């Protein structure tokens, strides 16, 4: 009997070996794939739970009954310079719309809230000077031709200008007798960027965009 393999025998043996390898590979992949499916299932369940909780929380926040301690906390935080949208992001706080309703329901809260807004304007007045005087971030260090150079940081300067401009807008609206005819220090740049011609919403959106870009740059 000949021990020499024919081409047909060789092909059959190769196909059998390939089939065994496929089966073994499938067995090895099965636990991993099962784990991935379970992970995806748990993630979907958690997302559904989070979405439901978020909806329930939003409804609760939007129907929260007037609370004097919470009202006082809101006013104290506004007095320290915080924005209402940031305060209302806290879980125990009402929505911005609910706060507006509270203002119509409580004369005391409305009066305290107005005084708090005025306190925040005082902070904005001081921050205009503080931001303008702070040159710590106006420059950055770069490497050029193997040498470390200190150059102006255009993004940091632009953001500082925007922060000043936003505060000017609040001051012009809240204290027109003092700031209504003031001249903003922000001027149009060579590339056509003109904060003075932008709305407060556009200015704040631009600040957010610059901050996001700066975070991405630092992460890289």
Q: Tags for this entry?
A:
220 residues, mainly alpha, flat
- Classification by helices and strands: mainly alpha
Question: In whole angstroms, how far apart are the ends?
Answer: 70 Å
Q: DSSP strand (E) fraction? A: 5-15%
Largest sheet: 2 strands, antiparallel
Mind telling me the C-alpha Rg?
A: 31 Å
Secondary structure tally, helices: 8
Q: H/E order of the elements? A: HHHHHEEHHH
Helix content: over 70%
Query: Which stretches of 5+ consecutive residues score pLDDT under 50?
Result: 184-191
Shape annotation: flat
Q: If you average the pLDDT, what whole number results?
A: 78
- Total DSSP E strands: 2
Strand order, sheet with most strands: 1-2
Question: How would you describe what is shown here?
Answer:
This protein is mostly helical. The protein has 8 helices and 2 strands. The chain has helices spanning 7-62, 68-79, 84-87, 96-105, 107-133, 154-174, 176-179, 200-219; strands spanning 139-144, 147-152. It has a two-stranded antiparallel sheet. Helix 4 (96-105) packs across helix 5 and helix 6 (154-174) runs antiparallel to helix 8 (200-219). The protein is flat, with a radius of gyration of 31 Å. The model is unreliable at 184-191 (pLDDT under 50).
């Amino acid at each position: 009997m000949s021990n020499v393999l024919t081409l047909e025998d060789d092909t059959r043996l190769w196909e059998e070996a390939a089939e065994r390898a496929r089966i073994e590979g499938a067995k090895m992949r099965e636990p991993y794939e099962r784990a991935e499916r379970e992970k995806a299932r748990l993630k979907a369940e958690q997302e559904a739970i989070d979405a439901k909780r978020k909806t329930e929380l939003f409804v609760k926040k939007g129907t929260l009954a007037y609370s004097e301690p919470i009202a006082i906390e809101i006013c104290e935080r506004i007095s320290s310079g915080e924005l209402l949208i940031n305060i209302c992001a806290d879980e125990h706080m009402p929505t911005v719309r609910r706060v507006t309703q509270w203002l119509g329901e409580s004369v005391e809260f409305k009066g305290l809230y107005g005084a708090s807004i005025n306190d925040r304007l005082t902070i904005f007045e001081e921050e205009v000077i503080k931001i303008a005087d702070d040159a710590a971030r106006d420059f950055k260090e770069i490497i050029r031709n193997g040498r470390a150079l200190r150059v102006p940081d255009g993004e940091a300067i632009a953001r500082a200008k925007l922060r000043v401009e936003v505060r000017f807008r609040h001051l012009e609206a809240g204290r027109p007798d003092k700031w209504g005819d003031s001249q903003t220090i922000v001027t149009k740049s060579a590339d056509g960027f003109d904060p003075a011609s932008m709305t407060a919403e556009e200015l704040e959106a631009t600040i957010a965009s610059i901050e996001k870009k700066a975070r991405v740059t630092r992460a890289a």
